[in-house]
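Table S4 entry, Transporter.
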Amino acid sequence: MNKLTLRTLPALLLAVFSGAASAAAFQLWEQNASGLGTAYAGSAAVADNASTIFYNPAGMSELTGYQVSVGVTGVGPSYTFRNDGSTLAGNNGGDAGGWHAVPNLYLSGRLTDKLSLGLGISAPFGLATEYDSGWVGRAQTIKSEVRTINYNPSVAYRLNDKVSLGFGVNYQKIDAELTNAGGVLKGDDSTWGWNAGALFTLSPAMRVGLSYRSSMKYTLEGTLNGATPVRADVELPDTAILSVWQQVSDRWEAMGDLSYTRWNSLKSLNVISRATGNAIPPAGETFNYDNAWRIAWGAAYKASEMAKIKFGIAYDRTPVRDADRSARVPDNSRLWLSLGGQWNAGRHGKVDLGYSYLYVRDPDINMTKNGTTLRGSYDASAHIVGLQYSVGF
């Protein structure tokens, strides 16, 4: 089966559900826009719309009737390179970042007092960097693009007034393209995973959420330079989240988040010829990622019966080691500074608007590959804006 033959609907969906990385490496936290204003603090405990399906499916037990939540976030990273002794002549590559949209759609319904069902469609991972073709690092990379789309049917069951449990199945598709001056590597695949969560209502004013998303194991199949059939095994990481939400007063809510992502599942991308079974080392990539964690705190202030103001801060530790940083993913640890608002129109639904500025510690690079050395540093940052509409019936 030729997996690179165009299949119209999946190809269109993958084109829509693409995005540039905003969290560490090429993970995307932006699975709703309603959490953007609080830097996604409390993501597994807030459960105020159907997007809880992604962060903690047990949160559907907090929703009444039938719920729809749809949104989009615009992710705009910037990576500008400053050369400092690279071996090839050329320019600095321009800005390798750029704006990309990350949409989402969630549906949930409470069937009984205890049982709820839902479906989420999202993009958990994404990468998009592209340099000028004549830049000093062209032998190592020009374009890097990873797109995913995830279908997540889920169920939640309320055990009692204190405890709810949730479980979901994930069917995820990936499409990747990596290029440099020497060639083009393309491949795609689909796979299955799962997610689960628990929500503990300690009091009417406090909830604690625990959730877990499994790793996703792919065997990418495609071509090298449009001719040589190749494959490569890739395992994208699993993530665990601990969240707290608290109603501090009639007007104030506070929330916190601690997450841990096991990026050490991604050590390398070994490209294998499907015809001979032999490795093609120049086409591969070395990652050697460490595990990473993220911590966030946020708050919301009820300014009126219809309006909330949100703000938050987060620290996102990179899994990328300094010695293994590549121009494909010029990542480093980052600080999120977030602000948002919500307009609640009652039976007509809620609209959330959020913004985050990501201050990224300038990444240095000293990578030798394909007979060349790329040496220098980056000015890196990102802007994220998001809009979400949620309504119940």
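The chain is about 5% helix and 55% strand.
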